Amino acid sequence: MEIMPESLTRDENAANDNKSFFITTPIFYVNDAPHIGHAYTEVATDVLARWHRQSGDDTWFLTGTDEHGQKILRTATANGVTPKEWADRLVESAWRPLIDTINISNDDFIRTTDARHEEGVAKFLQKLYDDGHIYAGEFEALYCVGCEEFKPKSEIVDGTGAFEGEKVCAIHSKPLELLQEKNYFFKMSAFQDRLLALYEARPDFVQPASARNEVIAFVQQGLEDLSISRTSFDWGIPIPWDSSHVTYVWFDALLNYATAIGYGSDNEQFARRWPATHIVGKDILRFHAVIWPAMLMAAGVAVPDHVYAHGWLLVGGEKMSKSKLTGIAPNEITDTFGSDAFRYYFMRAISFGQDGSFSWEDLAARYQAELANGFGNLASRVLAMNAKYFGSVQPEAGVESDEDRAIRELADSVTAAADAHIESFAVHEAIAEIWKLVDALNGYITSQEPWALAKNEDQRERLATVLATATEGLRALAELLHPVIPLATQKLWVALGAEEALGALADQPLRAAGNWNRLPAGTPQQPLAVLFPRIETDESK
Ligand code: MSP
Questions:
Q1: pTM (2 d.p.)
Q2: Is 127 helix (H, G, I), strand (E, B) or coil?
Q3: Is 66 in the pocket of ligand 1 (CB under 6 A)?
Q4: Domains of the chain
């Protein structure tokens, strides 16, 4: 037998150690332009993806657009264009630009009108049909075009105002439509017991716990078979064995997570990436935690690793939405505050998993107190003192005092704690943990008074130790905060001279951010532009 050279074996091991992490956002309906509720889903997923990527996990981040179905067809018709023309217009003018507006690091962007997707969906459907999971039947029920869903009784309410006397959707408050058709059905009811066993065996499959409980209660009530085709319009993927039907838009859309990574076309890529972690808003939890795993079980594919349901951004106590005219465009915020502040604010101010209200006052207050005064000032003060007292190089640390050790140990403990929070999707807790280091470093500068030490030549070594410690703290913060505020941390990284000394910021192993004295003494530093400039608000003018 041929013996492999040692280096090759080691490389192989290293590759195996890189845990696969495939994370997805929902794909967005292209009937309208994005608002900050959509951007919220994107940013949360992006922070998780960046954290894992920077930690060395074999990360793949997928997002995209959901373009078929009645909702898009009606919008296009109302605007006098074909649905494909409408989708192209919205994707190019609104949804792809959103990626830049909020600085999203997706590896792929799938559109359900991509050939790769349409072909994968056809293969999946054909397999389920051949294996006896699909049958033809008659159907009559109330449909909400806003949800693209036949509504269960619990979500049908009496209309008010203009819709008095009609049945309306509890989410959209718009009238439901009675649909009566011959449809193909997926035998979802057959998977009820297996789904319940899944939730039981893997308590972290649906998170948070409130979402898991809701899903279990729903499935326990009993599952019906799912209508998966439509004949009254043709904007969708044809059913492969009966082209007079198009595929139900949710059945089509859920499959994006599989077709994007090569389901039915690239087995190697699929095996490398799958299963996924899905981040979704709570309104679409059931599709992801019930229908989707049932579809996968039927096809003999592993179910996702996790389905995490986050809360809603509320306006006046209701879900922010374009149709209710409460949507705020993401660039209304980023034009003034920048993408870093957008990302930081929503991730920090709202407990991930719960609803939260957006307010301009809260955003402005946190920007000033936490980003500008807390973090930005810390960075500029420390670099300015390095410039003034040490000619803009990293000072050489001397004997470590208790205070210095406390900072070093805190950097280590917040790194471990933040990583554990990210593992459990508590993004807000991870940031709060890292911020303990920001606050501690500010307190350290105040208590150590480097400006006073600088007045006394005998204290030169102590001054060097204090500033070396504070600068190492900034180095750790740049690494830890990079997934949340990529632009500001990159500027800081360059100013610290770390780009030259340690390499690209995105390549720094995040879980080792607490390791100390990584910036070599003597590393040249560069001037730092103000990270979070003062915002002129109406009151401050
Ligand atoms: N197209 C479907 C998803 C298909 S996934 C296979 C869809 N699209 S959507 O554009 O309506 O919503 C996309 C995501 O944005 C959902 O996770 C939804 O919860 C989220 N949000 C839309 N409005 C929101 C808020 N006001 N707040 C937070 N997230 C919200 O559903």
A1: 0.93
A2: helix
A3: yes
A4: 10-357 (3.40.50.620), 360-512 (1.10.730.10)
